[in-house]
């Protein structure tokens, strides 16, 4: 009897641990993620970034960092608004009131380098 109670308590503990540590969400699990690039290891000029300005090839700049969000365009909950400044500085739109804090975690997956000063 005591053993059964201990076993169920351990089971409950493990299940709770699993629930709170899992990271994937419904939205992010569908997105193919690029290979992680170490921060600062690459840099692009503004004119290089500006070539990637379409739905099928979309880079954006947020706070002097460059993100290839091509694979995220179709997943973006805000629809085509993410394309408003495709190939350009999207910092203002990104920090707009429509965005909750989870966008800061999501954008990291799309980082490809910094903007050349
Ligand atoms: C990688 C960059 C971006 C990510 C990861 C992202 C992510 C998201 C997410 C998760 C939402 C749903 C609301 C929330 O949970 O916070 C959202 C909504 C929205 N986003 Fe973005 N976003 C990005 C870039 C942008 C940019 C650059 C703009 C505008 C220029 C924009 C405009 C909007 C708008 C207008 C909504 C509101 C949609 C609505 O409420 O109907 N987003 N975005």
From TrEMBL:
Keywords: Heme, Iron, Metal-binding
Record bears the keyword Iron: yes
Superkingdom assignment: Eukaryota
Record GO cellular component, one term: membrane
Domain (Cytochrome b5 heme-binding): residue spans on this chain: 41-116
A Pfam family reported for this protein in Swiss-Prot or TrEMBL: Cyt-b5
Gene Ontology MF terms: heme binding; metal ion binding
InterPro entries assigned to the protein according to its UniProt record, in alphabetical order: Cyt_B5-like_heme/steroid-bd, Cyt_B5-like_heme/steroid_sf, Cyt_B5_heme-BS, Cytochrome_b5
UniProt entry tagged with the keyword Metal-binding: yes
Family as reported in the entry's similarity comment: Belongs to the cytochrome b5 family.
PANTHER family (UniProt xref): CYTOCHROME B5 (PTHR19359), CYTOCHROME B5 TYPE B (PTHR19359:SF95)
Record protein name field: Cytochrome B5-like protein
Organism the protein comes from: Zostera marina
